[in-house]
Every structure is written in structure tokens, then in C-alpha cells.
Amino acid sequence: MKPVIPFVSNADGAERQAWRTALQEVLKDIADVKTFEELTPDECEAAKVAIVANPDPAEVAALKNLIWVQSLWAGVERLVGELPEDGPLIVRLTDPQLADTMAEAVLAWTLYLHRDMPRYAQQQSRKMWKSHQLKLPEERTVGLLGMGNLGIKSAQRLKANGFPVTGWSRNKKSIAGIETSHGPEGLKSLLAQSDIVVVLMPLTAETRGMIGAETFAHFKIGASLINFARGPIIDTPALLSTLDSGHLSHAVLDVFDQEPLPEEHPYWVHDKVTVLPHISAPTITSTAAKIVAGNIEQYLKTGAIPAAVDRTRGY
Fold it and tell me: What is the pTM for the complete model shown?
């Protein structure tokens, strides 16, 4: 009899069914995938590994003998915050396609800012026909905050398109072909020279609220911001104040403290903010399902668990 792998998710019905179908297809030769509601008491008791996507912590807790959970997302801050420290190990999704998708989004929205699209959109709303001088990519420095897989891939894509790139990380990193800095002084240096700052850091206790009034003061006057990481990394009132003062020219925001973004939020109507509905790097079901299947198959055959999240770092 094949083992049963619980799929625990609070995603909407269509999304959850799409994942369940894809996961069952790639795992059909070695396991049966069942949603939490379909599990029998014995199957709950026997489960050693589960696949999770925004799960209800109570449902995960009901699987009392879990050893590890495979997240379908790269971001795991919610799992780290909601699952007990003595609970199952958490394995984040590491999908090369995710880095490619994010790098594409970083390039696309960097070009959006580089080519002055927010200004032209405002002109269209006023029926104004006016061109503006175009800079070359090599005249606009892009600073990346966070130099993990997503940051490295994005930096390479930007460089290939002619942008000078500098990257910052909490600890020192050496990355071939990319200028890097680290620590508080390195951050100040990057912000002072960057025309566009892209946030790609994980949300941890250290990065929550990290980009606030004090940090914004070090931004280059007239710079723009792209946040493709997590909303709580940026202090919302501080960002609005910095935009209103003219210190920052524009912000492209794909992530927020609360999602969906509430209808009354000032971002919706701010002429210096572009709001995106968390679409910069969606998980691709087909590629992610194959990676998850490979991890679970290896575990069932050998007992090997993929590298788990370090709870002290939060990623």
C-alpha cells in the first residue's frame, strides 16, 4: 500500500484543486496525496511528511507525528511564526524557475521606472503630449537588497541589460561580477548611489520595519523603490512621507502588510505608487510539483530530508 501524503492548504478552491491534481500526478507512483479533510484518523497518525501552502496551524498540529513539512512557497515567515518551535522541520521550496521568474519581474519593473512610465501614465490622464530625455541603462545604478538566489539571478539579468548593479546582504558575500556590500555602512553606501532600489530580502525579526524613516534618509534624492519581498519590511507611514516630500520619486509595491490591500489604503490613489497584486514571482505549479515530488521520493526511499529552515534566522 502506498503511503498517504497530506496536503494542507487554505488556498481558494480552484488553486487548491490545481495543486492537488499536479501533486498527485507527479507522486502517483509512490504515494497518494489527500487534502486534510480527506484523511482518516489512522492516516493523520501515520503521516511523517506533509505538503503545505498557507496551512491552518491547527490542521498541521493535528498531524502529531510529522517530522517535516514541504512548503510550496519560497517565503516561509508565516510558517516559522505559526508552527511551534518544537514542531516539524520546515523545508522551503527551492525552484530554479522561481529565480528566473523573479529576475524577469525585477528587469521588467526596473525598465518601467527607467523608461519613466509612471510619468507618462500621469501625462496620459491629463491628455498631455510631452516627451522627456531618456537616460542610458549604464547611467542608472540599481541596488539590490538581499543577495540570495533571487538577488543573484536578478543582478545577472540587470547587468546583461546594461545596468550597473550593486548588491547588499546582512553578511559579507563574494559574487562573481557583482559589486557587493554588507552591514550597516554597506547599506548606507548602496542607498546613496542607487537610482533604483529593489528589495528582495526575507522577512525576519531583523528585517521587519528595517526600511523606515532613518533608512529612507540615506536614499539618493529622486531614487525609486521596488518591493518584491514582503510588505512589513517597509514602514508604510515612512514611505508615504518620503514620497510626499519628493525625496523618493516612485515606489512599485507588490507586497503589503495586509493582503489583499484594503480598499481604503492610501497606496491605491497615491500618484507616486504603483500597486501590484503580489504577482512578481508566482510559484509555477508544474515545475514546483516536480521538485516537491523529488524531495518526498528521496525521503521515502532513504529517509533524507532536504535542508530545513533555520528558525533562528527565519529562512
Answer: 0.88
Say if residue 260 is preceded by a cis peptide, omega within 30 of 0: yes
| pLDDT-based confidence at residue 81 (cuts at 50, 70, 90) | confident
Arithmetic mean of pLDDT over the chain:
94
Q: What angle do CA 308, 50, 310 make, to 5 degrees?
A: 15
Q: Out of 16, 278, 311, 313, which one is annotated catalytic?
A: 278
C-alpha cell at 83: 508552527
- DSSP letter string over the chain? -PPEEEEEE-S-HHHHHHHHHHHHHHHTTT-EEEEGGG--HHHHHH-SEEEEES--HHHHHHSTT--EEEESSS--HHHHHHS-TTS-EEE----HHHHHHHHHHHHHHHHHHHTTHHHHHHHHHTT-----PPPPGGGS-EEEE--SHHHHHHHHHHHHTT--EEEEESS---BTTBEEEEHHHHHHHHHHH-SEEEE-PPP-TTTTT-BSHHHHTTSPTTEEEEE-S-GGGB-HHHHHHHHHHTSEEEEEE---SSSSPPTT-GGGG-TTEEE--S-SS---HHHHHHHHHHHHHHHHHH---PPPP-TTTT-
Grid cell of 184 as nine digits: 550597516
| Of 92, 230, 247, 313, catalytic | 230
For the question of residue 278 being annotated catalytic, the response is yes
pLDDT in tens, 245-296: 999 999 999 999 999 999 999 999 999 999 999 999 998 899 999 999 999 9
Residue 164 CB contacts under 8 Å (≥ 6 apart), including other chains: 138, 140, 141, 142
Handedness of CA 22, 104, 143, 237 (dihedral sign): negative
pLDDT digits (tens, 9 = 90+) for 147-164: 999 999 999 999 999 999
* 230 part of the active site: yes
